[in-house]
Please model this.
Amino acid sequence: MQPTRESTWPRRAAARFCSRNGVAAIEFAMVSPMLIILLTGVVELGMAGFQAMQVQSAVEAGALYAAQNGAGNLSAIALAVVNATGTAGITATPAPTAFCGCPKTAGVASQGSDCTTVCSDGTPPGQYVQVNAALPHKTLMPFLNLPLPATLTARTTIRVQ
Model:
């Protein structure tokens, strides 16, 4: 006995509503905004990390210049900082400074320009240069609210004499 046309219609309709065709596309459409936001956050953190490394590299180039050429030309040290990497926007801010000081366990105790006063351990003071660099950081998507600084900075102090 052949089924009638009326009896096959509900079966075909039920089969159509139970079909799984397109389920993956719907799931992807629901998940893709979260994946895009996650990817953007990863790219943002990666860019900030790369820029922080560029700022540190610029400071190290300025310190290397000071070690090779002394503290006599602070504007040349600042120029070495600015030209050290191909990253646009790096500045030697605040400007490099030269000072006399005595080494301590927590850094260098500055004596300003007084290079005649003997240190507390009896050694003569050394001449130091402090090199700084800064780079403004702009976020890709400000609504992500990542805890990144607005300006990436680095600083180092090197003894030149």
